[in-house]
Amino acid sequence: MKEKEQEQPPAPRSDAPRPTSGAEDHERAPGAKGRERTSGARAQDLLRSFGTALATPTGPGEPLLARASSPWVRRLPYGVALALVASLLPVTITVLMQDYHVDGPIAGALATAQTVPLFLAVTRPLQAWWVIITADVLGGFALLDSDYHELPWPWTPMVVIGYLFLMLALGLRESRRALVSVWLVTGAAGAVFEILAPERPGSGVIVLLFVLSGIVLLLTATLRGRGEAERRLVEQETISEAERARRTLLEERTRIARELHDVVAHHMSVITVQADSAPYRIPDLPEAAREEFASIASGARESLTEMRRLLAVLRSEGTEGERAPQPGLDRLQQLVEATVRAGVPAELAMPADLTESVEVPQAVDLSAYRIVQEALSNVVRHAPGAETRVSVRGDGEGWLTVLVVNGPAAERTSPLEGGSGTGHGLVGMRERVRLTGGSLDTGPLPDGGFRVAARLPLTNP
User: Are strands 450-457 and 399-406 parallel, antiparallel or unpaired?
Assistant: First the structure.
């Protein structure tokens, strides 16, 4: 028992330090360090984005105001740049040599680097800014040892004028992040000079350039944003108008296809009935003829089935088919009377025996009715109260002529094109005439009226 008691190690003291691992130290580290790393990473990303904006021009080198409609406005940036370079270059050289007593070669090099890149600013303002800001900073260091402390420093008045034009070019071209970066670099360069020579009284121009450049950048960026918004609005309106016209055309074509289905389906149904009833109507019909009629009836039924499937696709969702028979020339008198009740004095001139003396195909019959219907609807909408004459006649040469002429109205509201009636204005008329292989002639009359003339073939086109 004594040996076992001697082998047991002494119990550790409660106040002795306990060793810890690195992982436990990391877990015990305060969350502030992680937040500091996150803040540092965000700052680095922000600086990197600003640097990328300064190194990446936005535009492809297109001149300023190149999209203006007036040629004088398009040439304006070149004229302003030429005037600035022609005036600032000699003045800068003279002021540096006479007022600041800079050596002639140095003054000429600085003046050239500070003014000539203004030509480049017309097409590539960000690249021009890099050249000019470098030249301006070098010029500030060149004037640092000047004994004429009462003169503006580090930016001369010529530098301020040229720099503001450069800010104008930048504001019209570059992104907002690039503009902010340029403004901050301008302020940082001025702050460095202020730290190097805080006692110079002429250094107030640093604050002046910093404030004026910010104002110019803000104003030009705002004007550019407004112009782009207006341009996008105009483009969207143009696209919407084109889509509206396209949708109107598609709707009218769909309507014509449905009506054409009704016309063709009628004839196919007649063919089916005649083929099915032929063995009962014709006595002693040979077996081969019976099989031929049965084949004709089967093909007609299959065609009807396929047309009904096509009609289901063409028909708008939630739209039911028309159960009434398709209208034709025999219902023109009712249409004209309804127009008269709507307040338009209209009259119809059509031979009473037209449909008896001339064989009118059903597609032409329906198209002629729809053309007159849409023409009268346009008169009601756009020329209320105008006297209207409707004429339908066959010329004896295989053509049906439909003529609708209205006189001037007291007031006209809007053009006929793209109307919102049954046939969608002149678009529907053209589509129907094209379907039948005819021709359409429309246009205003000298007295202020309007004329619609359609020639439709009485035989298959």
Answer: antiparallel
- Provide the residue type at 290 as one letter: R
Contact 432, 374 (CB under 8 A): no
Radius of gyration of the chain from its Cα atoms, rounded to whole angstroms? 44
Mean per-residue pLDDT for 148-152?
A: 74
Top-ranked range on mean pLDDT: pick from 37-41, 98-102, 319-323, 350-354: 98-102
- Give yes or no for a contact between 194 and 146, defined as CB atoms under 8 angstroms apart: no
pLDDT of residue 110: 94
How high is the pLDDT of residue 4? Answer: 41
The per-residue pLDDT for 215 is 95
Mean pLDDT (the chain) is 80
Beta partners for 390?
Answer: 348, 404
Question: Can you tell me which residue has the tokens 């000079």?
Answer: 193
- Which amino acid type is present at position 299? G
Contacts of 129 (CB under 8 A, 6+ apart): 121, 166, 170, 182
Q: What is the pLDDT of residue 238?
A: 84
Per residue in 310-332, pLDDT (tens digit) is 666 666 555 555 555 678 888 89
3-state secondary structure the chain: CHHHHHHCCCCCCCCCCCCCCHHHHHHHCCHHHHHHHHHHHHHHHHHHHHHHHHHCCCCCCCCCCCCCCCHHHHHHHHHHHHHHHHHHHHHHHHHHHHCCCCCHHHHHHHHHHHHHHHCHHHCCHHHHHHHHHHHHHHHHHHCCCCCCCCCCCCCCHHHHHHHHHHHHHHHHHCCHHHHHHHHHHHHHHHHHHHHHCCCCHHHHHHHHHHHHHHHHHHHHHHHHHHHHHHHHHHHHHHHHHHHHHHHHHHHHHHHHHHHHHHHHHHHHHHHHHHHHHHHHHCCCCCHHHHHHHHHHHHHHHHHHHHHHHHHHHHCCCCCCCCCCCCCCHHHHHHHHHHHHHCCCCEEEECCCCHHHHCCCCHHHHHHHHHHHHHHHHHHHHHCCCCCEEEEEEECCCCEEEEEEEECCCCCCCCCCCCCCCCCCHHHHHHHHHHHHCCEEEEEECCCCCEEEEEEEECCCC
The reply to whether CATH 1.10.10.10 applies to domain 329-457 is no
pLDDT tens-place string over residues 71-82 = 898 899 999 999
Rounded distance, CA 132 to CA 5, Å? 90
Q: Answer whether 0.85 is exceeded by the pTM.
A: no
Q: For position 404, what pLDDT does the model report?
A: 94
Residue 457's DSSP bridge partners are: 399
For the chain, percent of residues with pLDDT exceeding 70 = 81
pLDDT of residue 380: 83
